[in-house]
Amino acid sequence: MATYTALFPLGRTVQTPYAKDELTRLNYSPLNLLRKHMSGDWSEMDKDDQQSNRDAVTEGSRIFSAYTVQDVKFWVITEADRSSTTILLPSEY
After folding, report:
1. Could you point out which of 15, 67, 84, 88 has its C-alpha 20 to 30 Å from the C-alpha of 27?
2. For the chain, what is the mean pLDDT?
3. Is 0.70 surpassed by the pTM of this model?
């Protein structure tokens, strides 16, 4: 199993009901998304967005990730104060 180093705290982690339903349907653990997000695996995002996240880690602003699981897009957002991280579908934003 891969080792992940957390670049920032996630705070309270939640997922919307629709995201939870999709992850269950896809038999995909939300922990996989959270591990990628907190370790800086932002490879599905363009270079500018990746840089914005790197800056956000050091500056303390909001961190936004996007991941695709079997053609379903998920967003993961950690608030600037690191109080919470939410997994959601783009249509729920």
Report:
1. 84
2. 96
3. yes
